[in-house]
């Protein structure tokens, strides 16, 4: 796909999305969000893709936030503008694919919220994360007030949101906001290795496990256990399960077909 402000490639079972507005610290504007929406739809409907990696171009920023100029110029249409972006970014949370944020620099405001939508967050040591919207007289509108407390707890979420604190990568790791910290030089190598490890497993197993976790978190433990067995029944009776179990017993590498 030849799109200057967002780059999109696929390598085997992994899709790579790079926000490419280096001069604007990869801020999310309407053009990027429109293209990102199409890309996320393409990924969701591509059976060959198991993992999607999202990162930012350059060495300074993952995504520095939503484009402040566009928000300001939206005037009375500000909520409608944010709602459109909210709908697009939420597709990252609801996709059946595994999503990884490779945070290579500033992940502020909408950029931090986009990272929160991902299944994993791996941050370079020079990364900075936060939701500083209150300092601009606005507030997080891409899911930050809902996702952050679910990940780091309400107290830490309120601390970050209400003070506008910007965390280092190490602080974010201690908060549980990021899952791993890497050197800037090895970030993409580590994330790609993680993606490859996931993609090498049974695709139905990966999809089913993610669905069980996400659906289970929204209900009681009792209901979640029922969901797990419901999904397990489908996965365990698949061709992939037969192949994987046989391969283990026969000491050979399984060949999964997603069936």
Alpha-carbon distance between the two ends: 29 Å
Judging from the principal axes of the Cα atoms, what is the shape?
globular
The number of E-state strands comes to 10
For this structure, the CATH topology of the largest domain is 2-enoyl-CoA Hydratase, Chain A, domain 1
Helical proportion, percent range: 40-55%
How would a crystallographer describe the biggest sheet? 6 strands, mixed
CATH superfamily grouping of the largest domain = 2-enoyl-CoA Hydratase, Chain A, domain 1
Q: From the alpha-carbon coordinates, what is the Rg to the nearest angstrom?
A: 19 Å
Strand content: 15-25%
Strand arrangement, major sheet: 1-2-3-5-7-10
Counted by DSSP, the helix tally is 11
Oligomer: single chain
Give the H and E element order: EEHEEHHEEHEEHHEHEHHHH
| Count of individual domains | 2
- At the first level of CATH, the class of the largest domain is Alpha Beta
Given helix and strand content, the structural type is alpha/beta
Low-confidence parts:
none
Based on the coordinates given, report the CATH architecture of the largest domain.
Answer: Alpha-Beta Complex
